[in-house]
Amino acid sequence: MDLQFPADPALLPHATPGGVCFIFDANPGTRSVALSGTFNSWVGDACMLERVSATRWQATLPIPAGRHLYKFVIDGTDWIADPANPWISEDGQNNSCLTVDASGAVLMRQHGLSAAAPGPLHARAALASPDWLRDGVIYQLSVPAFGGDFDGVRAKLPYLAELGADILWIMPFHPAGIEGRRGTLGDPYAVRDFDAIDPALGDAVALRALVDAAHARGLRVIMDWTLNRSSVDHPFTRTHPHWYTRRADGGIYYAVPNRDEFAGFDFTDRTLRRTLIDSMRGWLERFGFDGLRFDDSDITPGDFLDEIRADLAALRPDIALISQSYDEFHHLAACDLTYEGGTREMLRRCAEGVADNAAFARYWNESTYSFPRGALRMRWLEDKEQGRASAFLGRAAHRPAAAVLLAMDGVPHILMGQEFDEPTWTGWQVLFEPYRLDWNAFDGGLYAHYQALIGLRRQHPVLRTGATAFVDALPPGAIGFTRGDAGESITVLANLSPREVTFDAAPAHVQPLYASGWQGDGATLAPYGWMIGMPDA
């Protein structure tokens, strides 16, 4: 996220012989401090800090290259962000961040990054991604929740085509684990067989028919892949136990706490890597998937991601790989798209009056120019691990927030039901029981809003690829920016507040393409209004 306060460099994580040094200043009565993060699978007691004074605790840990999230664990119970580090994760889970480059240097996000003063990684070009991904709008769905089975989803493809989404992301459809199962159906991300289909959803013929029908409508199809683990009762745990992480007594386990239904892979085994890649290839070859989305890729070795990319791109040169991470290094050789959840949080802050357009612009600049040049980010208001946008932002602010999201750079993501304000989704845990979207709650006005925004994005390439420039000196609650290139410029204004706002600094003579509550004569927007427009000819 945007940097919340000036940092004391002496207290920040920093490179030192042996790795990265972490420092924590605790209350005098503190009994223990541990370091937990993506670098040790979030184990709460894997790295204990040493008390070096009455209040200071310290530890040095070797950390691989890439973005890492972490917290301190105080007295074994309190998990807190690093109070000395102003860089908080974009995932909505209040984790502290740091990035380590290949030389071992620690790259902390800096204030003031911009096109004129980019971060060190921006000098490196991101992996070239296919145009269909860059130009697309992603729609993520669960087969049983959205359509019941493959045939039910296929029957709803006209709905998605009318909405305008052109990339269909299908959540896991493998058989789920039984041992340690949570709920009646279990976690769909606890995969019991990577090469099989859950028979409750249909068979291979039905899946192929779904993919073919999507392709016939111009939709690309992404398969969700659980990357770093299987269910604890996967046959591999019996036939190849050496492919898994194991305790000192030899027992298989998953290092992430409170995930007893999972068994974690040990990717030092080359045969395991080859087996998983071959399985991925099989799905691409048999069913024609256009890409894969990797779950929990932030705790998967980067060199394995690079291997996957090299192998699958040889099979499908226009493949797209989506990484569930915020890792700058994933863009260099492995993945086309990483997550970008900070836009959602900044929109909430603007709606609540605790941030303004200048803060939004600072966040955009700092997050854009700290990444490799040309890196594609997946922007979202809803994610499977979060609740509904209307609950997070406020129902009234949802529409102007969607206008901002669909006009921004990157690749927009929509979670099933987001487009009609479906009320029952609270997170992917609802899938542990029989669950269907509540189509009776359909908000046709919101659906039409998303439809119009996606249509504008498709009609005007500048909304997909144009340069972004933020408007200066906007009133509280307002967001404003332009998307432009040599041939076209579009202005985007949104009011996330319950008050009318006036845009004194807004570009003059704008002809609205799509607006609500806009009064051009006075350059005002009604509460929760928006305006997307072009200069008069």
Q: What does this protein look like?
A:
- Pfam families: Alpha-amylase, AMPK1_CBM.
- One of its GO terms (molecular function) is alpha-amylase activity.
- The chain is α/β, with parallel strands linked by helices and 537 residues long.
- The chain has three domains: 9-107, Immunoglobulin-like, CATH 2.60.40; 133-227 and 266-465, Glycosidases (TIM Barrel, Alpha-Beta Barrel), CATH 3.20.20; 468-535, Immunoglobulin-like, CATH 2.60.40.
- It is built from 15 helices and 26 strands.
- The protein has an eight-stranded parallel beta barrel. Strands 3, 4, 7, 8, 9 and 10 form a six-stranded antiparallel sheet that branches. Strands 21, 22, 23, 24, 25 and 26 form a six-stranded antiparallel sheet that branches.
- It is globular.
- The mean pLDDT is 95.
